[in-house]
Design a protein that fits this description.
Layout: H1 2-28, H2 37-62, H3 66-87, H4 92-122, H5 133-163, H6 171-196, E1 199-200, E2 202-206, H7 209-287, H8 292-302, H9 314-329, E3 333-338, H10 348-367, E4 376-384, E5 387-395, E6 402-403, E7 406-407, H11 419-430, E8 434-440, E9 443-450
Helix pairs in contact: 1-2, 1-4, 1-5, 2-3, 3-4, 3-6, 4-5, 4-6, 4-7, 5-7, 6-7, 7-8, 7-9, 7-10, 7-11, 9-10, 10-11
Length: 454
């Protein structure tokens, strides 16, 4: 009995756990780690190995039945999930989800190997291995596992690993995880037990062609199911990320109206104060001619706050005045030729958000330029051939990378930056426009075209 238990422990239980932990490592390595991670990892592995040895006794007596195998694999999965939960500071739902995906990947690789092996047995490829059969089998299995695991990880798991840090696991994803367990544990246990009874000489070698076809059909079905589940979870995470981004962009755009109202009130107050001060200074000049030079200097120093931008669009006037004041104070040469009346088809909030993001990006870019003569921003809004053309040009420092037609943020925290350009495109699309961006000779070009009749 002891020999049978040890055989089950080494050849079945430990091999299963080793394969499972390979996928655990790949999908969990970027998750936040708990304190004393190494101690918990090593100590947990020792505890899992000890528990698995006890499970081997159960497997020895009941592993030949489908329900016995189901209990073994469900229990081992629960133990490994508890170990993962101990090692990582993550929500329990996220840990279960990650471990379920790893389980599906492990089963997918195993079923792919069975597809290959059963076909090889049917073609008598392994009959000449003789006494070295066990050694050759292990070498082939491990080589196949390494290659197949790498393909599955990079094709199915890596996209999910990259998105999991920004995702919270909901009921839908947990339901998918339960479905994964159903496919990988129940179906696999039923197949292995019942088809083992039809094996000839050694497991997975069948004399009857019909049994071979049924076995391969089951293997293909399991591979397709696991692949479909992995693809579904990946797409679900993509949809959640896109939904989160759209919600954020919509919120940003909605804030444009509120920001416009605040800026409008501020600029109105500045204009009132400017004209009030100018009136009082002129009154002083009339009373005391000796103070004329000092008064003129004061008038000139505050003249920058006079609302000199007039485009025919109140929202655009407020924004351009605000940005012009900032550029004036920060040594940036901002030139603007804008026919704001042509943009009357846009809501004030969308317009303020659109041009606010355009100019904020330009100001940030030229702020990093060292040469004073290159701290230049040029903006134009004009009608051409029945189209409304918006063009912005500015110098920039360093190098720009583009993806999906837009420049990518240069900030290290890419998960929470780069929304400015995407919100610009979202507004442009909303009004039936088109946007193009490119960089040449250290100058960034942004071009937007609207067709008002749309």
């Amino acid at each position: 009995m002891i020999e049978g238990v040890v055989w089950a422990y080494v050849r079945i239980i430990l091999q299963f756990l080793a394969e499972l932990y390979v996928f655990y490592a790949f999908i969990l390595f970027r998750r936040p780690r708990a304190e004393r991670f190494v101690i918990k990892l090593v100590g947990g592995l020792a505890a899992v190995a000890a528990i698995a040895f006890g499970v081997s006794f159960f497997y020895y007596f009941f592993g030949s039945s489908s329900w016995g195998r189901m209990i073994v694999y469900i229990f081992l999965f629960a133990v490994t999930v508890a170990h993962a939960r101990l090692c990582f500071n993550d929500e329990s739902g996220t840990i279960v989800f990650c471990c379920s995906i790893a389980y599906a990947a492990q089963n997918m690789v195993y079923k792919l190997f069975l597809l290959f092996w059963c076909a090889g047995e049917r073609l008598y490829l392994f009959d000449g291995w003789g006494q070295n059969f066990s050694l050759y089998y292990r070498l082939v299995y491990y080589a196949f596992f390494i290659v197949a695991a790498a393909v599955v990880c990079f094709a199915f798991i890596r996209p999910q690993v990259n998105r999991l840090p920004q995702s919270r696991i909901n009921v839908r994803l947990m339901a998918i995880a339960v479905f994964v367990l159903f496919i990988t544990i129940i179906l696999c246990s039923l197949e292995d037990v019942y088809f083992a009874a039809y094996s000839l000489e050694r497991e997975n070698k069948y004399a009857e062609y019909g049994v071979y076809v049924l076995r391969q059909t089951g293997n293909i079905f399991s591979v397709v199911c696991c692949g479909a589940v992995l693809a579904l979870t990946s797409q679900t995470l993509v949809d959640r990320e896109l939904k989160r981004e759209v919600e954020y962009l919509q919120y940003t755009i909605s804030q444009g109206q509120r920001q416009y109202e605040m800026s409008k009130d501020t600029m109105d107050m500045i204009n009132i104060k400017y004209h009030d001060i100018k009136y009082k200074l002129n009154a002083l000049l009339a009373q005391n001619g000796a103070a004329e030079q000092a008064a003129e200097e004061i008038i000139n120093s505050i003249a920058v706050y006079d609302a000199g931008v007039s485009t025919g669009n109140k929202a655009l006037d407020v924004l351009l005045t605000e940005k012009r004041l900032y550029c004036e104070q920060n040594g940036i040469n901002f030139s603007c030729m804008a026919d704001g009346g042509k943009l009357s088809f846009m809501s004030e909030g969308d317009l303020y958000c659109l041009f606010g993001n355009i100019l904020d990006n330009a100001i940030e870019a030229v702020g990093k330029v060292e040469e004073a003569d290159k701290k230049v921003i040029s903006l134009s809004v004009q009608a051409k051939n029945g189209m409304i053309c918006v063009q912005c040009e500015n110098y920039f420092a360093g190098a720009l990378t583009f993806a999906d037609g837009l420049p990518q943020t240069t900030k290290s925290d890419k998960a929470y930056h780069g929304f400015g350009m995407r919100s610009i495109r979202l507004i442009v699309i909303k009004y039936g426009g088109a946007i193009t961006t490119f960089a040449r000779d250290g100058i960034f070009y942004l071009n937007i075209i609207f067709s008002p009749q749309n």
